[in-house]
Input
Amino acid sequence: MDEPNSNHTPLPPDEDLTEVRKPASLLVAQFFLFPLIIIGISVGIFLFFGYLIFGTVDQKSPAQYLDRMRNGTGTQRWQAAYELSNAVKSNPERAHTPEFVERVTQTYQGTADEDILVRAFLAQILGEFKEVSAVPLLSEGLQRSERLKSKEWERGGLLGFLRPSVDQIREELIQEQIYTLKALHSIGDNSAVPVVLEFGRNQEASVRKYAAYVLGKLKDPQAIDGLRVLLNDNAEDVRWYAALALAELNNSEGAEVLMKLLDRSYVDTLPDIQAEDKAVMMANAVMALGMLKHEPAKEKIRELSQKADAATVQYAAMEALKKF
Output
C-alpha cells in the first residue's frame, strides 16, 4: 500500500476550529429544495429530448399511433406498436371499432419478416379486442414465427454491425410467440386449443410453459393428453404449469408435482426466482390442490394457513381449506 502523501496543508490548531451553525431555512433548502429542483430539471430535460427523439410525450390517438407505425422505419415501427398496445390496453373500448380492428388486422398480416416486435405488440392488441375472428390469424402468426426461427438471416453488408444477432432475433421470436399465446388466452376461444397444444411441444421451455398455462385457462378436455405429456417435461417449471392446468380441468394427475410446491424449503432452493414469485407459485399450488380436494395436501395446507411466511400463501391456504 502506498504511504500517505505528506505534502498536505496542515490543519489549524484546535482553537481555530470553531463550529459554524447554518440557519434552519438554509438546511431545508440544501437537503430538500435543491435536490427537488435538480430532479425536476433532469426530468424536464429527459422529457424534452424524449419528445425530440421519439415524439412520445404527446398523447396520440390509437389511429395516429397505427399510422406512425405503418409509415415509420426501423425502431420507430416497434416503438409506435408498443405505444399503441399501451393505449389500447388502457382503454380498449376507445379503439374497438370494426374499422380500426380491420386496420390492425391488415397491418399484422402485412408485416415483414424482420418486424418481429411489431407483430408481437399487434398480437397483444388483437387479444385486448377479444376478437374470436382473430384466432386463425394469430394461429398462423405462431406458425410463421416458428418458421422464421430456422431462417438463414442475412448478415454483413455495409451496416451489418448494426443488425441484430441471430440470438437476438431468436429471443424476439420467442417473445412474439409468448405474446401471441397470451392473446389467444385473452380471446378465450377453444378453437385455439390445437395450435396451443402444438406449441406445448415447442423446443423452447418458456413457450411450452405458457402453452400449458393457456391450455388450463381454456379449460378444454381435449388438452388433457397433451398436458399429461408435459408432466414429464425436462423443465421443472413446465411441469408445474402443466399440473396447474390439469387442476383447472379438475384432473388430479399433477397433484404430486404441486405437493412439492407446498414445501418452503424446496421452493427456497429454486434459482433465479424472486421471493414474491415464489410466494405466488406456492399460493397457486395451494389453491389448485384445494380445488382438487386432494386429501394428502390438507394437513400441509392447514399448517400454511396458520404460519406461512407470506401473507399471499396464508390467505390462499385459508381459502383452499374451505374447498375440502
Notes: Residues 24-54 form the longest helix (31 residues).
